[in-house]
Design brief:
mainly alpha; 126 residues
Length: 126
């Protein structure tokens, strides 16, 4: 299923916004969840940093390592899942559910769109 140009751009923009929301949610959770200030600072920096590094290495459009689609999807599920759990952890269960559903639908649609694009142009670099 290949999305028309404007819908492709909108879906890619939504994907970027979801990535940012996941990182912000992880920072929010980290800075508010610990038992003391030092733990909060460490978690508030380490949780989003780990997500950013993981995404940049394996899931970003220009990822450092080119891996198979199942690995990319696993990394996306881990980051988006952690973002949803972080929202739940800061007492926003409805936002966590909405975020998880939108991230799932966006990722599924983007995956189908990219696969259709690459099937149409087999010499393209994935």
């Amino acid at each position: 299923m290949r999305l028309p140009g404007p819908l492709h751009v909108l879906n890619e923009g939504l994907a970027f916004l979801l990535e940012v929301v996941a990182i912000v949610a992880l920072a929010w959770w980290g800075f508010t969840t610990g038992g003391n200030v030092l733990v909060n600072i460490v978690l508030g920096i380490a949780a989003p940093a780990a997500a950013i590094v993981l995404w940049g290495l394996f899931a970003a459009p220009r990822a450092r390592f080119k891996v198979a689609l199942p690995v990319v999807l696993l990394v996306k599920a881990a980051v988006f899942g952690a973002g949803a759990l972080a929202l739940y952890g800061v007492d926003h269960p409805a936002a966590a559910i909405v975020f998880a559903v939108v991230a799932f639908l966006n990722t599924a649609l983007a995956t189908l769109d990219r696969e259709a694009h690459f099937r149409a142009a087999p010499d393209a670099d994935r």
